[in-house]
């Protein structure tokens, strides 16, 4: 069966979500910087344990998805591995990823978004044909899912994370 095509997402969506991602990254980094290493790496009962490991996971998956949609190549990843154990390295990688997402959003057109990438799925034992746009939706959804774990943990620590509504980001033109 051929996947649905033709405008799954538009370039404007990608630009809006890139700006949202940059804002939310800034908020997360600010809170995690303020906590310090011990609090950031403490076991909190999150799916990936600590706030640091959760933020590392978001970066790892963002990089993997960007590599897939940009045709850099697909590398196997182990979700149990922490890629950036050092906080300054993780922040630097997150900054690189945010610039990469912004650059991608600035140059992506509808034809590119509607293009299909082929993934060999070990889980399903077959090839998957997935529109680039759908993978980018997955990336932003995945970020939000795990940032929500971070915001919940911060709330439990008595820290108000602040707003997360897309139309109300500080630099929104709306």
Compose a concise summary of this entry.
The protein is mostly helical. It is built from six helices and two strands, in the order αααααββα. The protein is globular, with a radius of gyration of 17 Å.
Task: Give an overview in words.
The chain has 174 residues and is mainly alpha-helical. It has one domain: Four Helix Bundle (Hemerythrin (Met), subunit A) (Up-down Bundle). It has six helices and two strands, in the order αααααββα. It has a two-stranded antiparallel ribbon. A hairpin with a 4-residue loop joins strand 1 and strand 2. The longest helix has 25 residues, at 11-35.
Give keywords.
single chain, 174 residues, mainly alpha, Four Helix Bundle (Hemerythrin (Met), subunit A), two-stranded antiparallel sheet, 2 strands, globular
**Could you report the average pLDDT, rounded to the nearest whole number?**
92
Please count the beta strands (DSSP E, at least 2 residues each).
2
Runs with pLDDT <50, length 5+? none
Q: Give the structural class.
A: mainly alpha
The N- to C-terminal Cα distance equals 39 Å
Main sheet summary? 2 strands, antiparallel
Q: Which CATH architecture?
A: Up-down Bundle
Number of helices: 6
Strand content: 5-15%
Task: Give the oligomeric state.
Answer: single chain
Count of folded domains: 1
Question: CATH homologous superfamily name?
Answer: dinb family like domain
CATH topology: Four Helix Bundle (Hemerythrin (Met), subunit A)
